[in-house]
Write a structure and sequence with these properties.
By secondary structure, the chain is α/β, with parallel strands linked by helices. Helices cover 42% and strands 14% of the residues. The protein has a single domain (6-193, 244-278), classed as Rossmann fold (3-Layer(aba) Sandwich), CATH 3.40.50. Helix 8 crosses helix 12 (266-278) and helix 9 packs antiparallel against helix 10.
Length: 280
């Protein structure tokens, strides 16, 4: 595996770019799959898959929820002799109703998981919970900077997982023995409410933001009032349902099982990202 590259599909995303950085630091050749890469990759254009997969030792697959062609891509990878597959899935996708009735991405994740399991290629599945980095570069960043985070998450908590931990597990699965056939549930080492998370951010950065729990129906109306399509607003509200219900507060042991160490604590994440909020 030292001479053949690892293909990182989703190599510019939150986890993918960290997988790329870690593989490169190890001296492992990396091929980043994107629409603008030298070997162009597009989930909707099967003609781009073969050149991207040519002579790769393994593949990290981080696909958008709407990508329906992942099983076909996995089959192509198997046909071309790829040695390992690591799939980024999501926590709770195997639990009926985990995300509520308006979120349909869970079925897609399960379909993708079934595809890698049936591929005949040694596989590893990663099921992370909510990313800590959503506060520093994702969904919550602009509201945090504005000083108020309004969500239909009630008083629920989440064991926010650091994307660096996800990348570390992915790289281990791609480059080491002992991870084939494993499903790693990934979380941080403790659960925090949204208010507690924002308090930690204020503690390290000095930037204050308050959390406002909004009832689900009202939250949908607010989003629609901001220009969101009704279906998208309902879906985003459903995605928050596991936090409101306390399901995301469960601490998983995947980081410890895969890496032999504890998961990165939210406080450590906030210290590393503090400048993002100080500039607000």
């Amino acid at each position: 595996m030292a001479s053949d590259p690892i293909l990182v599909v989703g190599g510019t995303g939150k986890t993918g770019r960290q997988v790329v950085a870690r593989l490169s630091a190890l001296g492992v050749p990396v091929r980043v799959a994107s629409r603008t890469a030298e070997r162009r990759f597009d989930w909707t254009d099967e003609a781009t898959w073969g050149p991207a997969l040519e002579d790769v030792a393994g593949v990290y697959v981080a696909a958008p929820d709407e990508a329906e062609t992942v099983p076909a891509f996995v089959a192509r990878a198997a046909d071309l002799g790829v040695g390992r597959l690591v799939l980024l899935s999501a926590r709770g996708v195997d639990v009926p109703g985990y995300y509520g009735p308006d979120y349909h991405g869970a079925g897609g994740h399960l379909r993708n998981e079934e595809a890698v399991r049936a591929s005949g290629v040694p596989w590893t599945i990663l099921r992370p919970g909510w990313f800590a980095q959503n506060f520093s570069e994702g969904f919550f960043l602009d509201p945090v900077r504005a000083g108020e985070v309004r969500l239909a998450a009630g008083d629920g908590a989440a064991a926010f997982v650091d994307t660096g931990d996800i990348a570390d597990v992915a790289v281990a699965a791609l480059t080491e023995e002992g991870h084939a056939g494993e499903v790693y549930e990934l979380s941080g080492p403790r659960a925090l409410t949204l208010a507690e998370a924002l308090a930690e951010i204020e503690r390290v950065s000095g930037h204050a933001a308050r959390y406002v729990a909004v009832p689900a129906e009202e939250f949908v109306k607010e989003l629609v009032g901001q220009g969101w399509p009704q279906a998208d607003a309902a879906m985003w509200t459903s995605v928050l349902a596991p936090v409101a219900a306390g399901r995301e507060a469960v601490v998983a042991d995947g980081v410890r099982r895969a890496l032999g160490r504890e998961a990165t604590d939210f406080t450590e994440f906030t210290r590393a990202a503090a400048d993002v909020w100080r500039s607000a």
